[in-house]
Design brief:
Helices cover 62% and strands 15% of the residues. The protein contains three helices and two strands; from the N terminus they run H-H-E-E-H.
Length: 82
């Protein structure tokens, strides 16, 4: 079995969403798909948090480039101008 990636989980989540929106599944199958989707969302959120923690913005400070931890409340431009 291939290792689950963010991209494969997101594609599967999109497929599940399409199936559920079509409204053609029975109640039990819909609940199973919904439960699978919740698990995929948790996986994707975990991967996004891991990526977020690794993101650093390069900032020019005193003529040198230095790494600055990513702050989701700061735009790229604001971080660069600090």
């Amino acid at each position: 079995m291939a290792k689950k990636t963010f991209e494969s989980a997101l594609a599967k989540l999109e497929q599940i969403t399409t199936e559920l929106e079509a409204g053609e599944l029975g109640l039990e199958k819909s609940l199973k798909k919904f439960d699978e989707g919740v698990g995929l969302i948790a996986f994707c959120n975990e991967k996004l948090e891991e990526a977020r923690s690794q993101v650093e913005l390069l900032q020019k400070k005193n003529g040198r480039l230095s790494a600055v931890p990513f702050d989701e409340n700061t735009s790229d431009e604001e971080a660069f101008l600090k």
